[in-house]
Amino acid sequence: MGSVLSVRSLHLFWLSMPTLINSMLNTHEKREKMSDVVQGEYERKVEKSSILRDFGCPFQLHGIGSLSLNCGIKCTDDGMHYDGAVYEAELHIDMMFSALLIESHQKL
Prior knowledge:
This protein has helices spanning 28-33, 36-48, 64-71, 84-106, and strands at residues 12-15, 59-62. It is mainly alpha-helical. It has one domain (12-106). It has a two-stranded parallel ribbon. Helix 3 (64-71) runs antiparallel to helix 4 (84-106). The chain starts with 11 loop residues before the first strand and ends with a helix. Mean pLDDT is 78; it is low at 1-7.
């Protein structure tokens, strides 16, 4: 008797950078090195990079930036690290997305 091996597809998630609030960054060096221009360049390089596709799995980029932008200064003490609730919300979104992907693959 042969056995049936069930293999689920992997789904990778990459969180984009949170919205940086430059006026709250606590050093001149951080304000300089984490400018909107630098952040935009980083995001362009991530989008063009093939490293994340090299895993051979579906890859989804998730924008923590929009969640952190909507939460704003009330959710950060230093302009770059946000309260756990922001990241927890993204985790729940990822879990729902994963469940939908798994469900859609099971019906194929």
